[in-house]
Design goal:
One of its GO terms (cellular component) is nucleus. Keywords: Metal-binding, Nucleus, Zinc, Zinc-finger. It holds the Pfam family Dimer_Tnp_hAT. One of its GO terms (molecular function) is protein dimerization activity. This protein has 18 helices and 5 strands. α4 crosses α18, α9 packs across α10 and α11 crosses α13. The chain has a 5-stranded mixed beta sheet, with helices on both faces. Helix content is about 50%, strand content about 10%. The protein has about 475 residues and is of the alpha/beta class. The protein has 3 domains: about 60 residues, no CATH class; about 140 residues, 2-Layer Sandwich (Nucleotidyltransferase, domain 5), CATH 3.30.420; about 170 residues, no CATH class.
């Protein structure tokens, strides 16, 4: 009796899987590489789309229509390409920084949706490009920061980042917010030396002062300016000034409370929103953020752009009579905007990243003080706010208001040493806004449906996004 022999299906040779399907690009084909790189750079990094898009059947169908020869890349492969791209851009940044003598940095800590901490550091320097000198800004790191945010740990991780890019000896200024742990961290890193105060104002008429420096004097100046310094963020300090002023505006509390409730209704009540939009169109009233005074300014500006009578009619029609503004309250809101508007402009002007901002600090502070002096006779309701703003401005920026006797340079006198100082100083950011913008990118990348992303991948995506060539 013949036994039937059941044969197992023959296993395909591994070479079959290594071969590219007929009619499709090989993995090393220039067009295959170009499409893969475009997906990574243009879609995943610049458009901040999720890595999983490459495994989406609709996206794959789209690619097959665009180029039927293209072989779809896997998510795992694309993730490894993110790591490679980040490594490549770090190497390029290290080369760029090796050619500069002075840098300044901004530093801050951010929490993502999963409450993971990240230490962000941006670097700023002046770079010569032929005959031109350009301000360059880059992200050094947005690295995972675990454990308590003690000054010593911040200092330790910051020094590690500086060591990776070999900039510790080139570092001039460190700009951070006014948080106590940040201030202490950089006091630990770079202790401030106490020196005897020298008053040179009486000697500024000496014509020898305006000659270029001797070699000995130049060495003394170089040693002095080589000292690293920690600077407080100008925007945060200005926020403290406005905060001091708003503490003295209890008279505004009822009006601001009504305004906050109206803004909340626009975001929570469809009935009120329909009545409001029927009168004012798609105009909105943004919510205020407690830690950002300029968000309160934007909120007040938005409401006073509405007609007072029409807004009152909308509130009455929607049954919110308790939120009606009296004429006096409305005038207080308008006066608040008039007083704080220059502070908002100064804040926005000094938060640039690709332009020199350090030179705008003194003019901004002096202009704010002058504006307050000129407005003094016009203040009717908020005199407490007015006085507190002026007092806080003078207190927090005391050195700017010292009247120093200045000499005038004669035409034609060249000061080449000044150029070296300018290149160093003009690269200093006025505020920590550059590093805060980095965290905005991180928040956009880590959407709720991407919460399982590892901190390493998030760090690399943010780095590549902010250091796009």
């Amino acid at each position: 009796m013949n036994k039937s022999v059941t044969r197992e299906p023959q296993q395909s040779p591994i070479s079959q899987f290594m071969e590219t399907r007929v009619g499709q690009y090989s993995m090393n084909h220039p067009q295959q590489k170009a499409i893969n790189n475009a997906i990574l750079s243009d879609l995943v990094i610049d458009c901040q789309l999720p890595l999983s898009i490459v495994e989406n059947k609709n996206f794959r169908h789209f690619l097959s229509v665009v180029d039927s020869k293209y072989s779809p890349v896997t998510r795992r492969k694309l993730t490894s390409k993110v790591e490679n791209l980040a490594t490549e851009r770090r190497s390029k940044l290290k080369t760029q920084l090796s050619n500069t003598d002075h840098v300044s940095v901004t530093v801050d800590i951010w929490f993502d949706r999963k409450m993971r901490g990240f230490l962000g550091v941006t670097v700023h320097c002046m770079e010569k490009d032929g005959e031109r000198i350009q301000l360059k800004s880059n992200l050094l790191a947005c690295d995972s920061f675990k454990g308590p945010h003690m000054a010593e740990r911040i200092c330790e991780q910051f020094e590690a980042i500086c060591g990776e890019y070999s900039i510790k000896d080139k570092l001039d200024y460190i700009i951070s917010d006014n948080a106590s742990n940040m201030r202490k961290a950089f006091t630990v890193c770079f202790p401030i030396e106490q020196e005897d105060e020298v008053h040179d104002a009486d000697h500024l008429d000496d014509p020898e002062l305006w000659n270029d420096l001797t070699l000995e004097d130049q060495q003394t100046v170089d040693a002095a300016i080589a000292k690293k310094q920690s600077l407080q963020c100008f925007a945060h300090t200005l926020q403290l000034v406005v905060g001091d002023g708003l503490k003295e505006t209890k008279v505004m509390t009822p009006s601001l409370s009504k305004l906050s409730k109206i803004s909340s209704l626009l975001h929570t009540s469809t009935t009120f929103k329909e009545v409001f939009e029927a009168e004012f169109g798609e105009r909105g009233i943004p919510a205020a953020v407690n830690t950002r005074w300029n968000s309160t300014l934007r909120q007040v500006k938005a409401v006073i752009q509405c007609d007072h009578r029409k807004l009152s009619h909308v509130l009455e029609k929607a049954g919110h009579n308790k939120l009606l503004f009296t004429v006096r309250e409305w005038n207080k809101l308008k006066e608040l905007v008039d007083i704080l508007k220059p502070f908002g402009k100064a804040t926005d002007m000094t938060q640039g990243e690709k332009i020199v901002t350090i030179s705008s600090v003194v003019p901004s502070v002096l202009s704010l003080n002058q504006n307050l002096e000129q407005r003094k006779p016009q203040v009717h309701f908020l005199s407490g706010l007015f006085r507190s703003l002026q007092a806080s401005l003078n207190k927090r920026f005391l050195g700017i208001f010292i009247n120093v006797k200045m000499a005038r340079t004669q035409d034609g006198i060249a000061l080449p040493s000044l150029s070296r100082v300018a290149i160093r100083v003009l690269a200093v950011p006025t505020s920590s806004a550059p590093v805060e913008r980095i965290f905005s990118h991180g928040g956009i990348i880590l959407q709720p449906h991407r919460a399982q992303m590892t901190d390493r991948l998030l760090s690399n995506l943010v780095f590549c996004k902010c250091n796009a060539s």
